[in-house]
Amino acid sequence: xxxxxxxxxxxxxxxxxxxxxxxxxxxxxxxxxxxxxxxxxxxxxxxxxxxxxxxxxxxxxxxxxxxxxxxxxxxxxx
Length: 78
Fold this sequence. Notes:
The chain has helices at about 25-35, 60-75, and strands at about 10-15, 20-25, 40, 50. The protein is of the alpha+beta class. Strands 1-2 form a two-stranded antiparallel sheet.
């Protein structure tokens, strides 16, 4: 259903001295947020409201978190 969201053109990266954020922007961000958290939104422009069920689009497994942690620690130490 959300195969196109995997494309890099929909992702935006921002960074500053405090950190890095990678996510979606614009209309794509709104659609992704509504489905990620199960929010209420219009089905179509001017259409009825609908409470969408939560469908996790982005998530980190415990294995993902461990890999990220290990990579970060290796970078900081090395």
